[in-house]
Amino acid sequence: MSLTSILQTISKEYTPLSDKTIAHWASLIKQRTYPKGYILVKEGQYSDMLYYIVKGAIKAYYLKDGKNVTDWFAFEGDFMCAITSYFLQVPSPHYIETLEEVHLLSITREEMNLLCDNYHDFERLGRISCTKTMLQLQQRIVSLQFETAQQRYENLLERFPVITQRASLRDIASFLGITQETLSRIRANTRI
Question: What InterPro entries has UniProt attached to this entry (predicted)?
Answer without folding.
Answer: cNMP-bd_dom, cNMP-bd_dom_sf, Env_Response_Regulators, RmlC-like_jellyroll
